[in-house]
Amino acid sequence: MKKSLLFQLVMATVLVVGAGVARADLYSASKAFQEKDYERSFQLYRELAELGQVNAQENLAVMYVSGEGVKRDNIAGYAWAVIARENGGGGAMQDIIDQLEPHMTDAARKRIDGIRAQFAKPALENRLLPKIFESANYVDRKPCYLSKQAPNSYPRAAIESGIQGNVYMEFTVMPDGRARNPRVVFAVPSGVFDDAARRMIMRSEFSPSTQNGVPVPCTTSTMVMYVLQGVAKSEYSDLTSFMKRTQKSAEAGDPRAQMLYGLMLSGLPQFKKPRSDAMPYFVKAAQAGIPTAQFLVGYSTMLGWGCECDEPKSVIWLHKAAAADQADAQVMLANYLLRGEPGPEETAKALTWRERASATGSRDAKFYLSALLAAGADAERRNPQRAFEVLNEVMRDMDDDPTAFEIRAAAYAMLGKFTEAQKDQRKALKMAQQLGWETASQQARLASYVASKPWTGDLFAF
Known about the structure:
The chain contains 23 helices and 7 strands. The chain is mainly alpha-helical. The protein folds into 3 domains: 107 residues, Serine Threonine Protein Phosphatase 5, Tetratricopeptide repeat (Alpha Horseshoe); 156 residues, TonB (TolA/TonB C-terminal domain); 122 residues, Tetratricopeptide repeat domain (Serine Threonine Protein Phosphatase 5, Tetratricopeptide repeat). A 3-stranded antiparallel beta sheet has the order 3-2-7, with helices on both faces. The protein is globular. The two termini are 44 Å apart.
């Protein structure tokens, strides 16, 4: 039976939320409380409260005062009630404050001030929350945009099975106006449309971002929707009303709706919204414990995409998501560690993150892992033979990307098989030229293999 496109969008968000159930999220905290597992509920609410999630702060205040899941502590309960009230919490917080106010001593107020200094909104804004732009993708450059979309093929198997779906991707547009490393953040159904969407993005043309008139790399996103012929008109005519309903739920505090609405704002080209419009919804979903939202906040904050670039804040969010085995966050942390000239310690940590991401089954993670094993700067951690093994697991899905053949060429060269390395590198170069890439880096690697010299470095640094 065909599923409506809007149903697929809802299910996409459910799957994104479900990816983080092993970690603290608002749904798990509420479920634990309902099951009378008060100690676990308290722990989960505490983690979310410290991220600024107002419902968690309210519940934390009540649990401290009532002694549920934690030893009764009226001072801590008072402090969290004040924090929640300042964060927009309900009238129950004022009731707690009014009841406990007459009993607050000077020593108690000193302790309350200490808690507020750590977790009240001004402290979180300084330490954790991104500074979101005013209706902009970037403030230091002209953003990139799609200028010519390549033909997008509907997979035959999906047509025969009556399957519709969507793919949300983020990718970098280089100064040559072509996309690199299109990463599927989520897709529903999983694995059905990923390759088609990736091929379309890699073959499309973009107007590159410019900074002071000079082309520079630019990260952007899109949601590619696959709709069977004969239903497109009715589905798209309802998309605007669906967005309004989703927005209403998001503003009422539903983290699933917040995540979905942010994705639609950021990824649906027909609405032409900047990343900054999606960021408040990503932040709220991230505060509610949604790992993919935490990744999106961390990634955006690292790049200065829709918000100010702030690496310390970014790393906090990425670690939150990575701890919940969100593969994109794990890969991003590895990439962050490998910037510049990483030492053995940074390389070891990066390898650990990429290994852990690959264990989730992520194809993109395996792609990155194979590159590090093939050409990483740390000789002790290079393993070209294993690079082949990891790459072979995803080669069928990535064989339209020149980088796949560059990884294999680097692995061959590291094993001293320069004839094979040259063959793969020439194939990569030809593919890159056909895609319209600037190919200086591919040519330099080919020259190295012709000279019977292996190459080390970051194969994803274009």
